[in-house]
Amino acid sequence: MIASRSHLHAPFRTLAAGIAAVLGMAGQAQAQSLTPDEAPEAWVAYAENATRTLTTWLEADEAAAIDLRQELDQLRSSPDQPTESLELRLWVSADGVVTRVEPAPRAPLKASAALRGVVDGRRLPPPPKGMLQPLRLAVQLEPPA
To answer: In whole angstroms, what is the distance from residue 135 CA to residue 68 CA?
Structure first.
């Protein structure tokens, strides 16, 4: 069943869920993470800006964004409820290009592909020097108005 037009334009709620990184050191990976309270102010401001930009991309009238909203819309527990939160990890190059996005492992494959279509290769401002990555965000499609 195709979602109604009002479902396709339901707003996203994007939540900054913390800033974390996986850093390779001497050939082995060591995971590090920081809560927003622990992170430098510039990192938190960057994550908030990235969150607003990501929300704009997800709400766009482009085919990939519409496909993603349709996929998420089908996962609602009921039509008047928001979708389940979809956790994302986002990597951004030094020049601001989104080089990689990964949804949580439990995300549906179609939603994962649609998400990559919306986000991969898009440009954000360059991240602050030394900022840990990936950014960890969560998105949720609100119920239609």
So the answer is: 20
Structure tokens belonging to residue 135 = 């950014």
Contact 14, 139 (CB under 8 A): yes
Measure Cα distances from 29 to 2, 22, 38, 59, 104 in Å: 43, 7, 21, 35, 19
- Model confidence, pTM: 0.73
**Residue found by looking up tokens 């900022």 in the block:** 131
How many Cβ atoms from other residues are within 10 Å of residue 110's Cβ? 14
CB atoms within 10 A of CB 49: 12
Q: Which residues, in sequence order, are CB contacts of 91 under 8 Å at separation 6+? A: 98, 99, 100, 101, 133, 134, 135
pLDDT per residue as tens digits for the range 113-144 = 888 889 999 999 999 998 888 888 877 778 77
- pLDDT tens for 18-63 read 333 322 222 223 346 677 777 788 888 888 888 889 888 988 899 9
d(CA 84, CA 137): 13
pLDDT digits (tens, 9 = 90+) for 73-96: 887 888 888 877 778 888 999 999
